[in-house]
Amino acid sequence: MRVKLFALLSAAVLFVLAAAPASATSEGHSYLALGDSVPFGFSPVRSLWPNAANFIGYPEIVAQQLNIENVNATCPGEATGGFLSLTGTDNSCFPFRAFFPLHVAYSVAQMDFATAYLRSHPETRLVTVTLGANDFFHLQNVCVRTYFPDFAAITACVNSGIPAMLTTMAANLNAIFAGIRSTGYTGLIVAVTYYSLSYPDTSGSDLLNGPMIAVAGAYGALIASGVEAWRATATSAGGSSCAAGLLLPAFPPVSGTCDVHPTPLGRDLLAAKVVSTIADSCPAHSVMGCLNRNRG
């Protein structure tokens, strides 16, 4: 059903959504990762869910490459409203964390964990954020529940709801970045945006990523483009992120189809984009120099 619905809505808005430890010589927990299933390293294979160590997201790879330790506070299905409050709009984070472990255990909203963590860990030098796709998926799910099996009505419902969804997403992201900075944290924030399922037309991903790009820049955050991270590899496979091996196979398996979450290759390309984005922001393109400059 989910695969068919993605195909149906591709003309409207088809985009992606989209714990190996750091080196023992790293300098302590100086990297906080926030967001949804993409940085969590999520897989739709349910047998993996009871053990969070089965999931390795791009933050773990970034931490290895930068020789720092990360705290991955992400949650699969986290929407921007649920990130801010346990009473906010959620896609599937709340039920997931009720039954399965996250990389980090906490009972409050992710926003509350993040601000408490940053206040108590002034040595933090890097925060990454990937968030927003589940706002769309929540809208999609509401439309499906309301109008199924009338696919034309579902499509119309999604299209009509997108402007308000994007406005709410932008307002929530503004509150999130303001909350991060309100802790006194002045270090690096990297907003990692979503990749595309299909190239070269990335208009759907660009639409989804728009609020994050606009809001993050207002708080001095860098933008690590998921679209650009995957472009060359997907293009080499005719434009399909699935055919390029960047997306996990659909589960349950459906021949020739993929889930919306990254494979290890897709994850590693996102991690490389984070590292290169940090390096490009600093004199002499020194990623370690940039981190040291932002030492607490």
How many separate structural domains? Answer: 1
Largest sheet, described in full? 5 strands, parallel
Q: State the secondary-structure class.
A: alpha/beta
Instruction: Please count the beta strands (DSSP E, at least 2 residues each).
Output: 7
Can you tell me the CATH topology? Rossmann fold
Query: Helical region count?
Result: 13
Q: How confident overall, as mean pLDDT?
A: 90
> How does CATH name the architecture?
3-Layer(aba) Sandwich
Explain this structure to me?
The protein is an alpha/beta fold. The protein has helices at 2-8, 10-13, 37-40, 58-66, 80-84, 93-99, 110-120, 133-147, 151-182, 203-218, 226-235, 264-280, 287-293; strands spanning 29-35, 69-72, 126-130, 188-192, 222-224, 247-249, 258-262. It has one domain: 3-Layer(aba) Sandwich (Rossmann fold). Helix content is 49%, strand content 11%. The strands form two sheets. It has a five-stranded parallel beta sheet with strand order 2-1-3-4-5, with helices on both faces. It has a two-stranded antiparallel ribbon with strand order 6-7. Helix 7 packs parallel to helix 9 and helix 9 (151-182) runs parallel beside helix 10 (203-218).
